[in-house]
């Protein structure tokens, strides 16, 4: 075991950690917003929206994330330049990066899993509380904002914490589309120094620290809103 | 346009000018890897669950480290790390025994590694399922004078299956999707076969979409099979109360 390479690689490790965290925050943040929409579409949408939302969840939960990522990066990525004017546009520098495709596919994937969790939680909110809200004359939107959604999120919190950790563990896939995340740094160190296990161990440590941080964060949030059982 | 469309879809035909055959054989090896890993995981998981519940302290501690470590580390890192460590370790053992080093085939290593990872998750699923069996049933079996093995076969196993099947179904779905990660270490299953086909024909979207649909079909069929199986092992059980029924 030799760890002398850390001296010259720690700036790269930190950038890698930053990329990993950025991917995680982007996909969880946007994915959660998307998931709220999909969950409500399934719970209270019409037959068509319900079917679309179900199809979305089935597709993204039924296929490997790696395939989704490659479908987006190689498949959609190869079709994008065909759109006239896009190559000259302001967004092209972002649109050609692997990071963009990784962020989008992780977001879509996370939204599908999270929507299922939220759907269950929305259905688990006691009916009486919603009826009480309606009896107070709340409009449907206000009912969702003040009672239905907050209660559902509180119910789902422990599951959401698990989902976020799962999402963290999915982020190393981004290295297959040229994103320089933590795992990609480990691969680079392996190529440069021919050490296999040491970089993987160090990177694993990083992931464990991030996991511990997520778990702690959610414990804190859960304690803010105690639930009566 | 119609003829051009026809030309593109011809790429998916199963005979050699098309790449359908490559995709299908990739799908077959994906299924084989998943099934192998699932079985190894099942054996490890049963052993792990019984070990954890046996009350032997050092054994419980070792198993706790196994399940926690495996479940905390990203699958990709585990697979890459164990893939090299497994090959390396085996060759060192062979060298110790004075035998020549040999190149293990990727298929066996993929199954072993995924099975080892799967075993950690199985341990937890099966442990939970065993704990959910009413203790009275096991005590009754003991009172009848059944030995541990007969007790496991006749009482514990049939009683744990309904509890464990949903979890096992989840694990089967996730192993099928995780087996795509083996592509990263270079073993040709469906994901890598797709990438190959896409790269040589430049029809990336078509091929990745096709393989996504193959995975989806595999998942949906498995889902249906597991539903049937669960209905079978739950026969004779009371139906859940009305408001919980789907």
From TrEMBL, chain A:
* Localisation: Cell inner membrane; Cell membrane
Superkingdom of this entry's organism? Answer: Bacteria
**InterPro entries, per database record:** AA_ABC_transptr_permease_3TM (IPR010065), ArtM/GltK/GlnP/TcyL/YhdX-like (IPR043429), MetI-like (IPR000515), MetI-like_sf (IPR035906)
Domain (ABC transmembrane type-1): residue spans on this chain: 17-218
Q: Which residues cross the membrane?
A: 20-44, 65-84, 90-113, 155-180, 200-221
Molecular function in Gene Ontology: transmembrane transporter activity
Membrane topology annotation: Multi-pass membrane protein
Q: What is its main location?
A: membrane
- Please tell me one Gene Ontology term that the record gives under cellular component: ATP-binding cassette (ABC) transporter complex
Keywords of this entry = Cell inner membrane, Cell membrane, Membrane, Transmembrane, Transmembrane helix, Transport
Gene3D superfamilies listed in its UniProt record: MetI-like (1.10.3720.10)
Transmembrane in keyword set: yes
Biological process, per Gene Ontology: amino acid transport
PROSITE patterns per the record?
Answer: ABC_TM1 (PS50928)
List, alphabetically, the Pfam families matched: BPD_transp_1 (PF00528)
**Annotated family:** Belongs to the binding-protein-dependent transport system permease family. HisMQ subfamily.
Q: Note the PANTHER family from the entry.
A: ARGININE ABC TRANSPORTER PERMEASE PROTEIN ARTM (PTHR30614:SF10), MEMBRANE COMPONENT OF AMINO ACID ABC TRANSPORTER (PTHR30614)
| Protein name per its UniProtKB record | Nickel permease
User: What organism, scientifically named, is this protein from?
Assistant: Xaviernesmea rhizosphaerae
| Organism taxonomic ancestry | Bacteria, Pseudomonadati, Pseudomonadota, Alphaproteobacteria, Hyphomicrobiales
Automatic annotation (TrEMBL), chain B:
Q: Does the keyword Cell inner membrane apply?
A: yes
Q: Where is the ABC transmembrane type-1 domain?
A: 27-226
Where are the membrane-spanning stretches? 19-44, 65-87, 93-117, 155-175, 204-229
Principal localisation: membrane
Keyword list (alphabetical) reads:
Cell inner membrane, Cell membrane, Membrane, Transmembrane, Transmembrane helix, Transport
Recorded hits in InterPro entries, A to Z, give: AA_ABC_transptr_permease_3TM, ABC_transp_permease_HisMQ, MetI-like, MetI-like_sf
Mention any one GO cellular component term assigned to this protein in its UniProt record. Answer: ATP-binding cassette (ABC) transporter complex
**GO MF annotation list:** transmembrane transporter activity
Specify the protein's topology with respect to the membrane.
Answer: Multi-pass membrane protein
Q: Where in the cell is it found?
A: Cell inner membrane; Cell membrane
Tell me the domain of life. Answer: Bacteria
The record's similarity note reads:
Belongs to the binding-protein-dependent transport system permease family. HisMQ subfamily.
Q: What is this protein called?
A: ABC transporter permease
